[in-house]
Amino acid sequence: MRALAFILPAPLLVLLAGCHEPSHPLPRPPLPAQRVKLAMASTNAWIASEAVLGTVRPRLRATVEAKAAGRIESFPAVPGQRVQPGDLLALLDSREPRARLDSARATADQARRDRDRVARLVGQGAATPAELDAVDARLRVAEAAVSEAETMLGHARVTAPFAGTITRKHADVGDLATPGRPLVELEDPSRLRLEADVPEALVASVPLGSRMVVHAGADTRPIDATVSEVAPVADSISRTHLVKLDLPPLPGLRSGQFGRVAVPSGAADVLHVPRAALLRRGQLEFVMVADRGVARLRLVRSGMQDSGRVALLSGLAVGEQVVVSGLDNLRDGQPVEVEP
After folding, report:
1. Radius of gyration (Cα) for the chain, nearest Å?
2. Residues 116 and 141 placed together within one structural domain of the fold
3. Full-prediction pTM beyond 0.90?
């Protein structure tokens, strides 16, 4: 070694000398006791449910068309506009129906004068009652023609049938409006419902008037909905029944949003714990089990969930105590003190 010391550099000698010294790591201080609340894992009847997808739609919607053909002269309707019953949506060219009305009124005036003249002649004995009946009939026909022409002239004004919001516009000024061609789409956004195609195996679980839990849009809060319609006949291709659920008026809820309804599919006894006891770290799920005054991290696998409980498929036994509060700073192996 004395000869080796002259050959090796000094830093390497220090390293070799340090390899012979035993390492003694400092002991970790004991973890302080953490005050927690516990809950017992138990088994109870759990109503299983299946999520059925649907779409939020208005309960009242209409595609407005013109009742008579005519060129569109004015189209004040704008998508997103709020309208009231009777508000003008489109105005058609009214020259032709107005001319027909003028002609019908002239014919009716002439028939009215003929009727008065024949009535005087009948009173003087110069005309027969049959002639009076004939001019009365012509007068009624002329008055009916006036009423028809007035109605056709009224069709030149396309108005809103109910209070709502214009969602789509299918024509513009200069287009030819005809019966059967949509002009605007109108819906009432204040009254919405979820329309879902429920499989025929589950339709018996959604009777009329029943209340069900719905999630719609980006909001994760559950919505209490009421079943208002159930199609009595199943679709021959998808084997589903169309079910409509009335939704309460809520901010942020709009027509066309995605939604889902939890349809009951059966009941079973399952092991469950409060949702507050479940910890997630990446794709893994854990609970803290209180074992003789010490917290132990336990790997579990969860199943169904509701507003306050989560079912556990593995990792826990009935009667074990899990930590439900004070989990933020709790570590595996740390002593726990149970809060009353």
Report:
1. 41
2. yes
3. no
